[in-house]
Design goal:
Number of strands: 19
Order of helices and strands: HEEHEEEEHEEHEEEHEEEEEEEEHHHH
Number of helices: 9
Number of domains: 3
Shape: elongated
Radius of gyration: 29 Å
Strand content: 15-25%
Largest sheet: 8 strands, mixed
């Protein structure tokens, strides 16, 4: 008995050790940002270290100002998404509101809105930079040095890239690359800039099964514009200063197709280029908690009329806005999915089951679109699911004819059961005699 208890104790301690060790290399089970005073809270860090070179970035002050503008836009406008088309209005959640009457009476433009509180910190010291990558959770980190990756003391260049990948995989960190070929150059702390080449990006992408990733240098400078997908961000951020960009150092769109959470400037011709966009940084498609890699390869930005704009400011604004959207919208989707599920459970408890099949079907569609990084279809389905739920009714009581039929069925069942047992007992008595 003593040996059994001792064995159980040892097994329990081993289990705790396994869980703790496994936790360090296991993605978080939830990707929810915290709420603070009813607002979704998220931190943004701009890494602009003293004494570190920059490539494809010329003005660090304008980079910081662009990031600050993106943060202020979110705090002022909230995460605000306009659902497509006019629709009937139902007050199903505090996160939905109506905005102006549609051209057909009784139909409204419906929006979803989530208040947010983003903060911005400029990181100029090596120890702060090291600590953020090693320990921050659900944050946006902007490398203002462009194609140069700073490497702090205690790390090799490969080890530091591995640490960044770990932060994205397991602590939902979002890394923003502002321009040029990612990680093409590196600078060790208290040293000079050196060339790494294509291996830097490949070191990062090895962690998501893409060890041969390369950016392309087009033979001629083409230009790419923002697709309709970006309209989902337009109520919170305006992208007019970088509506068109020069095609430079794009990713292969086909290679990352299943991981593209937000395409910023995909190619408009047959070439599968992605000059900028948000990539879900995850090891497999079933991983539900992960960070994002924001890629911007270009060094030139233009307005919609092809006028030159301040590329340092514009790229910073767009990339930070994209990172904020990816993190905040994911928390918004998880929040509203939970509300929708609670509504259905409440209706079920109240026996309001007529119409719930439709609600559940729409909810299942919303859950699918959630795995596709929350396109407009998600918000359409979740809103319609919640409407179907609040309008669900109790099924009508059976009619008199139905009651008579049910009673007749019960009587017949009881009679047949009685006959069966009586015949069985008679046969038993005959065998005994």
């Amino acid at each position: 008995m003593v040996s059994y208890a001792r064995a159980m104790t040892i097994s329990f301690l081993l289990l705790i050790l396994i869980v703790k060790v496994g936790f360090l290399n296991t993605p978080a089970t939830s990707a929810m940002l915290p709420f603070e005073n009813g607002r979704i809270k998220v931190d943004v860090y701009v890494v602009a270290l003293d004494g570190v070179e920059t490539m494809e970035v010329t003005n660090l002050t304008r980079v910081i100002e662009g990031a600050q503008k993106a943060v202020e836009s979110l705090n002022m406008n909230n995460l605000d998404i306009a659902l497509p088309f006019g629709r009937k209005w139902e007050n199903v959640s505090s996160h939905f509101y109506q905005r102006g009457e549609h051209f057909i009476s009784g139909f409204w433009y419906v929006h979803t809105r989530f208040p947010a509180n983003a903060s911005l910190s400029v990181i100029t010291q090596w120890n702060e930079y090291k600590n953020i990558v090693e320990s921050s959770v659900e944050s946006v980190v902007v490398n203002a040095h462009g194609a140069v990756i700073p490497i702090p003391d205690g790390y090799t260049k490969e080890g530091w890239i591995d640490k960044i990948a770990e932060a994205m995989l397991y602590r939902n960190l979002t890394w923003v690359h502002l321009g040029g070929y990612p990680f093409y150059y590196y600078q060790m702390q208290d040293s000079n800039m050196e060339t790494w080449g294509e291996n830097g990006l490949q070191q990062l992408m090895t962690h998501i099964g893409k060890p041969n990733t390369k950016c392309y240098f087009p033979k001629t400078f083409e230009h790419d514009g923002m697709p309709p997908d970006c309209d989902i961000m337009s109520r919170t951020w305006w992208m007019t200063q970088a509506y068109i960009v020069r095609r430079l150092w794009p990713l292969n769109y086909t290679e990352f197709k299943d991981l593209v959470a937000m395409p910023l400037w995909p190619s408009t011709d047959s070439a599968p280029y992605l000059v900028g966009g948000a990539i879900a940084f995850k090891e497999d498609n079933n991983q539900t908690s992960f960070g994002f890699y924001i890629h911007i390869g270009t060094n030139k930005t233009y307005s919609g009329s092809m006028e030159n704009t301040d590329s340092d400011h514009s790229r910073s604004y767009v990339s930070v806005a994209t990172g904020l959207y990816c993190l905040v919208s994911r928390t918004a989707r998880e929040t509203i999915l939970s509300e929708a599920e609670n509504l259905i459970n409440k209706a079920q408890a109240e026996d309001r089951t007529k119409g719930l099949d439709k609600a559940r079907s729409l909810l299942a569609e919303a859950e699918f679109f959630d795995t596709q990084y929350g396109p407009m279809e998600f918000w359409d389905r979740i809103y319609e699911s919640m409407i179907a739920t609040v309008n669900a009714e109790k099924p009508p009581p059976p009619s008199t004819d139905q009651n008579i039929a049910i009673m007749a069925l019960i009587v017949a069942s009881v009679t047949l059961t009685g006959i069966f047992w009586r015949r069985r007992n008679n046969k038993k008595e005959e065998r005994e005699t």
